From TrEMBL:
Gene3D superfamilies: 3.30.70.330. One of its GO terms (biological process) is translation. It comes from Eubacterium callanderi. This is Large ribosomal subunit protein uL23. InterPro entries: Nucleotide-bd_a/b_plait_sf, Ribosomal_uL23-like, Ribosomal_uL23/eL15/eS24_sf, Ribosomal_uL23_CS.
Amino acid sequence: MKNPRDIIIRPLITEKSMDDSEFNRYTFEVAKNANKIEIKNAVEEIFDVKVEKVATMNMNGKMKRMGRFEGRRKNWKKAIVKLTEDSKAIEFFEGV
């Protein structure tokens, strides 16, 4: 079994994700090879909450330039996790 801290890379703190936290939805950057079941188990183990639903999406890296040189940021995976109604909020997102 994979380590849950290898699956959840970091939380995404944006204006939209902060608005979603009012509805028990939290956004994370996750490992590209993680599936919804692994993401659900990792969030439940790390934050001690119950997950109702997981939505994932693959994000393409943006093109970037440095002078005449072009490059690309890495592709990554985003997961939006919805908690059950009786779950407590994730403290990490509170007060940000």
